[in-house]
Design a protein that fits this description.
It contains 2 helices and 5 strands. By secondary structure, it is α+β, with helices and mostly antiparallel strands. The chain has one domain: HIT-like (HIT family, subunit A, 2-Layer Sandwich). The chain has a 5-stranded antiparallel beta sheet with strand order 1-2-3-5-4, covered by helices on one side.
Length: 106
């Protein structure tokens, strides 16, 4: 039995529409549908990794790519500062079990 796709996998596969801010071969960036700041982006890897606990050594380039993308995204949104959040596990506030980085700025 194939596990059910996350909402983010469905967005990546264009099964669910979303406002895409940026996309490349490794990740997609969308506006959060429930923003907690004036700018609230979600940086989502195309590889479905449930949580930070599930990262493997071969994921270091993917995670580095996303981290280096964050300041570029912030600047493209006119931000001169921002904060990031990665929720991990239910007790860490994670709601969608597909790693993603929140980029927030005002």
């Amino acid at each position: 039995m194939t596990p059910e796709k996350s909402i983010f996998s469905k967005i990546i596969d264009r099964e669910i529409p979303s406002e895409i801010v940026y996309e490349d071969e490794k990740c997609i960036v969308i506006n959060d549908i429930n923003p907690k700041a004036r700018i609230h982006l979600l940086v989502i890897p195309k590889k479905p990794i449930a949580t930070l606990f599930d990262l493997a050594p071969e994921d270091k380039d993917l995670m580095g790519h996303m981290m280096l993308l964050l300041p570029q995204l912030a600047q493209s949104q006119g931000l001169d500062g921002f904060k990031t959040q990665i929720h991990t596990g239910e007790s860490g506030g994670q709601e969608v079990f597909h790693i993603h980085i929140h980029l927030l700025g005002n």
